[in-house]
Amino acid sequence: MNEPHLPTSIVTDRHGDVLVVRLARAQKRNALDDATVLGLERLFTSPPSWARSAVLDAEGDHFCAGLDLSELAERDTVEGLHHSRMWHAAFARIERGRLPVVAVLRGAVIGGGLELASACHVRVAEPSAYFALPEGQRGLFVGGGASVRVPRLIGTHRMTDMMLTGRVYDAEEGHRVGFSQYLVETDDGYKRALELAEKMATVSPVTTYGVIHALPRIGEADPDQGFFIESLMAAVAGGSDEAKTLMREFLDGRGSRVRGEGEA
Fold first, then answer.
1. Which residues of 11-28 are buried (b: 16+ CB within 10 A; e: fewer)?
2. Do 140 and 239 share a structural domain?
3. Overall number of domains in the chain
4. Does position 264 have pLDDT exceeding 60, yes or no?
5. Is 3 in the active site?
6. Same domain, 22 and 81
7. pTM of this prediction?
């Protein structure tokens, strides 16, 4: 299926309560043109009403090779500013929208592709994935949110190294420093991402909202404000009818329990 308001570079599908979104510019290594970026913004601003979570995948061997350089027109300073802010607005709809989003990373995850991946909530990498920010080697500076989101994943010192030396992280090293939460075997990325998204789809909407919207703000706040936001969110979630039902099921022995590996 596909939404009528989306460009041909974005293909969607439904898997239960999971919205599957695929970048469909394999011939361009899924490089992002303006139409694709704006399409992502529209989709994640108003996702289908049935969707409870999403998987962001890509056709071909690469997740996303960054900005489509054929669209790198000469812009004056103000035009460049507005173009960057357009990317910010689009990726913000992914990061702080209604749906938790799991990205499937393979091949190139570079430049704007890394900015897109870092706006997702969980990242699953295959062994072919590699991470880079080549803007620094091209006389440019990142403009799609990398300077905010990438340091949250790997630290400012590592991003500095990437920008100034052109360092490329492979899948294993990238996983170790924080680019991905899961590292799976070749061709297992989509399967694992779908499994995770299906679990996310069962979480109550109020908890999902708290994780997507409150948790990042708590992390950015000073401790006193963070504790206060946490208390507000805990009260809202705990007072919901769904939370009360789930707690009753747990106390009655009908709810799932957390068990360690090998524990009966």
1. bbeeeebbbbbbbbbeeb
2. no
3. 2
4. no
5. no
6. yes
7. 0.92
